[in-house]
Fold these 4 entries.
Entry 1:
Amino acid sequence: GRGERRGFRQGIGRLIRTRSDLGTITLLDSRILQRPYGRHFLAALPHGVIHRFSRTDRATVFRPLVAGCQC
């Protein structure tokens, strides 16, 4: 519900605090696309590029996004 979405936004806010901050937010739960409440979580994301990937193409899509990450 709303509490979960609020916590989700707060977590994103801790990652991205200014316009110059960069971050990668990875949602690995397919319910975000399959359930009606998923659109609310997607709407909570900051504007940017969204990449969708499946189990079969995750290596080719996801790895370049995190290559060079200073994690």
Note: DSSP finds four helices and no strands in the chain.
Entry 2:
Amino acid sequence: SLANQLDTELKQPPLYFAATHGTDSSSVELFRVLIQSGANVRFKDLNDQTVLFYVCKLGKNISMQGRNSA
């Protein structure tokens, strides 16, 4: 699926882009869409890191708790 397609250069799926770009609110929306589309939240990149590592490293506030699902 497109939600798990790897970037050709960085070898990371779209969740990594959502974690490292945009505002917290735009990241939350992109995370929601990608997860609903089947994104693998446990994927590890070439550095053996999950997307959660980058979210924490960058101090992103992307909690989806309390969000309504579409």
Note: The chain has three helices and no strands.
Entry 3:
Amino acid sequence: DMQYQLWEFIMKLTAYSVKLKKVVEIAEPKIVTMKNGRKAVSGVAAEDPTSKVFRILSDKDVAEVEKQIS
């Protein structure tokens, strides 16, 4: 439905940074496959490149994120 697509478009790649204690945008995102086969996005916080962040993706999100990254 339209509203969901709009939300997907607005949704930036974000993750919670434990170091910064807040949600940050992911800079230099890479899709990685975890040991259990699930996909995740790994990168650094845009506002603090020393802070590594990681976000596990749902199967639904994988295609969207791949489009955003490439």
Note: The radius of gyration is 12 Å.
Entry 4:
Amino acid sequence: DETKTIDDVIEVPVQINGKLKTTVTVPKDIEQSDIDKVVEENEVITKLLEGKTVIKKIYVKGKIYNIVVK
């Protein structure tokens, strides 16, 4: 049965300036505002963003999350 093979959660790679830093596990149908919170609470991302200015956050639903910093 194909409905049993569909995952409810996915791993989304998180990049900073186009470089992969970590992945987060989130529900498949998560909205951008919700994934923003999950990424901001991630320890790895929190440490890497210290002292930097976030220019833009880009989320391609179900594929990738990218943070542009300066």
Note: The first helix runs from residue 32 to 41.
